[in-house]
Amino acid sequence: MAALVTDSHRPPDDTPLSQALNAMRWMAALAVVVTHLDNRIFEPHAAPGGLSGYYLWLFSVGFAHKAVILFFVMSGWLVGGKILKEAISGGNVDLPRYFFDRLSRLWIVLLPAVALTYVLDGLGYGLAAGPAIYENAEPNRTPAVLACNVLFLQTVTCPEIGTNGALWSLANEFWYYVLWPLLLAPLMRFKGARFRWGLFLVGGALCAALLFQRFGTYNVVPYFTIWAIGAFARVLPVPMMRSPAIPAGLLVAFLVGTRVLVRSEMLDTPLRTFLFDLVTALLTANVLVTLNHWKGTLPRIFRLRVHQFLAERSYSLYAIHTPLIMFACALLQSQFGLGWKMEQDDPRVWAVLAGVLMFVVLSTWAFAAMTEVRTAQIKRSLRGMWPAPREIARA
């Protein structure tokens, strides 16, 4: 999802910007995971009075939506910003190499993630509690839907496979990768002007075709604007503020403030939701711009290597956490009568929550060790199977 799936265009790992991006990537991924844990493990009704621990948990699980916006902005910065800089500087953008890098990076995790979802959902459905837990997902677990998800058409022509609803954002991400260079083609230096404007028209036609496609309130094309904010931010020559402390404080204050003060009925239309998300995107971009020009040093806690370790596994965590949670819940419910829609005042719920989260994390690390962590090696192997994409000749 978004910045979760970018690797080859990020700056060196010892810069304040990269350190901040690493921390933001894994924390945003974790925000999505805990929200999906809450949706499945807790019974969705008001907690009895006095459960302060639950209310604290309830506050913490309300940032998944904003995490997606952070992902889009970071992805726009890392991927879109690089190609935008090359285009406006008159550089020769290597489009075949660009698409090879983007598609291979996505598929290295997505293909096994889709297969794992197919298998885990089948195993979970076969458990005693499976039919009740998987009742809304089983119709989506077909070979046709599997192929559709592999081609990034989920939410466009088919649903997400099985229980893996998180895969909707990868479809958005893929189409943003496709649209961006097509729309920038007139600025590039390859072939003739007619060919470049032809690519631009193809990009415009795709925008029109995707205009009304959406996941919930996340319309594909309007949220392309959110992604593009990150790209345009990367080419800004000077930051609005000198130190990242103020823009970071503004972003955190807005995220926490809207979580505490904004009620769901205030976001009852896509337009209102988009406006709040637009503010989030602009504040996030401001942080990145400031860090990009800043010559200082981040606090030690942001310079710990653990952030890079977790960030390098965050795409895998996002791609497989939902089917892992569902399978763990189905297994626990079948064997012990626990793990699915539990009451908030049940003293066992926190142990179940911690156990499922640990299962998800350990499974993700094993999965990432065979996929995401080996991205560079797998790409080299793929390039060795056929001639590397050639650079497009200059006009």
Outline the structure in words:
By secondary structure, the protein is mostly helical. The chain has one domain (2-385). It has 15 helices and 2 strands. The protein has helices at 16-41, 52-60, 64-88, 95-125, 130-133, 143-150, 168-184, 193-210, 220-234, 245-261, 270-293, 306-311, 314-336, 349-370, 375-385; strands at residues 214-215, 218-219. A two-stranded antiparallel ribbon has the order 1-2. The chain starts with 15 loop residues before the first helix and ends in a 10-residue tail after the last helix. Residues 8-12 and 388-395 have low confidence and may be disordered.
Task: Sum this structure up briefly.
This protein has 15 helices and 2 strands. The chain has one domain (2-385).
Key descriptive features of the protein:
mainly alpha, 2 strands, 1% strand, two-stranded antiparallel ribbon, disordered C terminus, 395 residues
Task: Provide the fold topology.
Elements: H1 16-41, H2 52-60, H3 64-88, H4 95-125, H5 130-133, H6 143-150, H7 168-184, H8 193-210, E1 214-215, E2 218-219, H9 220-234, H10 245-261, H11 270-293, H12 306-311, H13 314-336, H14 349-370, H15 375-385
Antiparallel strand pairs: 1-2
Number of domains: 1
Number of helical stretches of at least 4 residues? 15
Which sequence of SSEs, written as H and E, runs from N to C? Answer: HHHHHHHHEEHHHHHHH
Radius of gyration in whole Å, from Cα? 21 Å
Give the overall shape, derived from the CA principal axes. Answer: globular
Please list the strands of the largest sheet in the order they lie side by side.
1-2
| Terminus-to-terminus distance | 35 Å
How many strands, what sense, and barrel or not for the largest sheet? 2 strands, antiparallel
Number of strands: 2
Backbone structural class: mainly alpha
Spans where pLDDT lies below 50 across 5 or more residues: 8-12, 388-395
| Share in β-strands | under 5%
Range of helix content:
55-70%
Q: How much is the average pLDDT?
A: 88
